[in-house]
């Protein structure tokens, strides 16, 4: 969740840093040169893989710290790491800049909180499948070309097939939380992209993560209390923060400087496929023919969306 991510929802123009934005120099904190060499699509895929490993670790942590406690640790540690690495400048930003970064932080915190509430009530696969509907809806709304609606529809068919096509037996509250997380995911994509334009390097991400951590920490303390200070729990939470927040959100923010929001949103449909593939490779969970077909549909939709944008010169390397 991943993740992760700058134009308004109605724009399909290429996303690049604003004119006059500071270009990160090699060797400076937060410089994206090494990660940027992967290309925007590679950045998104690398972030997705990181999120899956972080999500698996978070599942093992939830019995120790609770859903809200895990989110609090994740946001807090990620905020501290990003602040230390990026050392963002606090002066010289406009009111609109601060408004953007605050909304980004609120969306990030809400996305994480709602998703962990969902997986506390329904299985991970259906939760991710429902959550990804947010980015898919964004891909249709953000694009002015009918072909993007086709790719989104193909990806939508894939994620429903991957989820088994039957959500009627799921806990209604869990479904609602997952859909809410999807809506916040769409907001995250839009405001991550806008933040990337307004702030150099990953400064905006560090500030937004701090906003999210400050907002969520009281909830985590109320649910888990002193459990959050347990060394083992805190250590696992730090690992979750690095895998599920710091790395993927940074990669997504860099990717969204060079990818249209519509293409990025469709690429997010790879998340359920990555989760199923990781389960097969790491946990030995077998894939049914229907799940294999679902993964194929999702990957085809993502590749089609990217090729469409490349053909129009929307993606730069």
Structure description:
By secondary structure, the protein is mostly helical. The protein is built from twelve helices and no strands. The protein has helices at 33-36, 40-86, 95-119, 124-131, 133-142, 146-162, 172-198, 203-224, 231-256, 261-267, 270-283, 289-311. The chain is globular. It starts with 32 loop residues before the first helix and ends in a 6-residue tail after the last helix.
Name the shape in a single word.
globular
Tell me the radius of gyration.
18 Å
Helix/strand order: HHHHHHHHHHHH
Helicity, as a percent range? over 70%
Share of β-strand residues: under 5%
Question: Would you kindly provide a brief summary of this structure?
Answer:
The chain is an all-alpha fold. Helix content is 73%, strand content 0%.
Can you lay out the helices and strands and say which pair or pack?
Blueprint: H1 33-36, H2 40-86, H3 95-119, H4 124-131, H5 133-142, H6 146-162, H7 172-198, H8 203-224, H9 231-256, H10 261-267, H11 270-283, H12 289-311
């Amino acid at each position: 969740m991943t993740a992760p991510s700058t134009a308004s929802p109605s724009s399909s123009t290429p996303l690049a840093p604003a004119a006059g934005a500071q270009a990160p120099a090699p060797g400076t904190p937060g410089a994206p040169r090494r990660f940027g060499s992967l290309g925007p699509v590679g950045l998104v895929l690398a972030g997705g893989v990181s999120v899956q490993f972080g999500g698996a670790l978070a599942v093992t942590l939830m019995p120790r710290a609770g859903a809200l406690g895990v989110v609090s640790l994740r946001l807090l540690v990620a905020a501290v790491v990003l602040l230390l690495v990026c050392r963002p400048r606090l002066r010289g930003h406009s009111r609109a800049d601060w408004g953007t970064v605050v909304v980004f932080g609120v969306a990030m915190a809400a996305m994480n909180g709602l998703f962990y509430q969902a997986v506390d009530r329904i299985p991970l696969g259906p939760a991710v499948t429902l959550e990804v509907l947010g980015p898919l809806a964004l891909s249709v709304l953000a694009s002015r070309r009918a072909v993007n609606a086709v790719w989104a529809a193909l990806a939508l068919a894939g994620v429903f097939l991957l989820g088994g096509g039957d959500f009627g037996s799921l806990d209604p509250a869990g479904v609602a939380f997952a859909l809410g997380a999807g809506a916040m995911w769409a907001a995250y994509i839009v405001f991550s992209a806008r933040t990337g334009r307004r702030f150099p390097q990953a400064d905006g991400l560090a500030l937004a993560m701090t906003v999210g951590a400050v907002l969520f920490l009281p909830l985590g303390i109320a649910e888990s209390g002193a459990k959050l200070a347990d060394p083992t729990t805190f250590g696992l939470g730090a690992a979750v923060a690095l895998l599920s927040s710091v790395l993927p959100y940074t990669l997504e923010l860099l990717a969204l400087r060079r990818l249209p929001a519509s293409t990025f949103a469709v690429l997010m449909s790879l998340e359920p496929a990555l989760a199923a593939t990781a389960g097969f490779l790491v946990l030995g969970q077998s894939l049914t023919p229907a799940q294999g077909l679902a993964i194929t549909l999702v990957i085809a939709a993502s590749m089609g969306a990217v090729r469409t944008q490349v053909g129009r010169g929307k993606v730069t390397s």
